Amino acid sequence: MSASTEPEKDAAAAAATEGDEKTEAKDSGSGWELLYCGGTSFDAMGRKVVGGAQGNLVSPTRLRPLVGVDIRFVASGCTACHCVALDAGGKCYTWGRNEKGQLGHGDTLLRNLPTVVSQLSKYKIIKACVGRNHTVVVTDDGKSLSFGHNKHGQLGTGSLRNEIESSPVSCIVAEATNVACGADFTAWLSSVEGSSILTAGLPQYGQLGHGTDNEYNAKESSVKLTYEPQPRPRAIAAFSGKTVVKVACGTNHTVAVDSNGFVYTWGFGGYGRLGHREQKDEWQPRLVEVFQKHNVLPPNAIVSAGSVSSACTAGGGQLYMWGKMKNTGDDWMYPKPVMDLSGWNIRCMASGNMHHIVGADDSCISWGVAQNGELGYGPNGQKSSANPKKVDILEGMHVTSVGCGFGLSLIVVDRANVGDRLGQLEIYDGDTGAEGLYSLVFLFPNDMV
Q1: For an engineered disulfide with 344, which of 78, 332, 360, 395 has Cβ 3.0 to 4.6 Å away?
Q2: What is the CATH number of domain 247-428?
Q3: DSSP helix/strand/coil, 402
Q4: pLDDT band at 50 (very low <50, low <70, confident <90, very high)
């Protein structure tokens, strides 16, 4: 753990209005609260724009609609510029980019702040995940619903009829217990015996785990390779005799853990993100050799996948990572222990494009390459960090859930025992302060994000 070079300055307290007094009353209550850091120009993040993306929140910041709301779970995705939060009552909030209807509000209008998905109000949502342009949720009674981009069948509806579904639709998955999203594919966990993991969406690199990339030539007169969309969730045959209990998805790869604590990876193999000491793509689950015998994963293990990396906690809670860790230097071709975090009790972790956040003991720890202040080090802190480093302003707080997107971070903290410290954090009202200051001029090839 590298020591902080400069203490974080407390954010200015909000003006003492009647609304703020009400906020302070909530600060000392029970429950959990969401904090946000990173970009707020959701339509510009990850894209080249004139003047650059504006309005970054470089310190953990409260979001006005969720002040005092008991948030229990957050999610974003390593290629995503939108977010999901679930409260204790199972209400679902979404915000961010919405060009493909991925917020589930029945339109394609961007939302700067968390907004309740009204069409999910009759359900109690307990899990959620986010892809590049789609969102999938799971209810307390095992139903799964999805919304957003469906070009590759990633919504799991069994149909490709509508390329965009801007309102929630049903996934063909029974007894769903959890879900994870890659950029353009989805993996569900289910309690159905023999079908504990199902996948749908883009099969291009074998990330669906069915032993094929479903490639075919779309033109007789020339070579135009296409990958057949897979809209119907299908159980992975390789796991027919096993029970998968954890899953995480990167851009085009998947990490899964079975009930024996064994780790499997498959999909795109570049930069060693599969952990097999080679960069070969894997079209079906392959056992990661490091996590066997005395180093199988315990039941409370954490699993995370970034765009080009993978991570898990193994024996003794030790964090291991593999893949591309930074922009320069050698890639980690097989799982290696992150020694800076040895001895820490890691309870949650998320990975973005090239950044990572963990909640451990009474600290929030972040590191990696940042674009929009998503590491939360504040206006006087460093922009990026090669090594795990505490987010000073949150020191002493109990972090219960984290999420990482492309240039953004979501951090949930327990309000208990923090006194008035939450009241000292800035509250964001949704004004990027950048209206009209930039215009899109160029998208990354293949619309990278």
Answers
A1: 360
A2: 2.130.10.30
A3: strand
A4: low
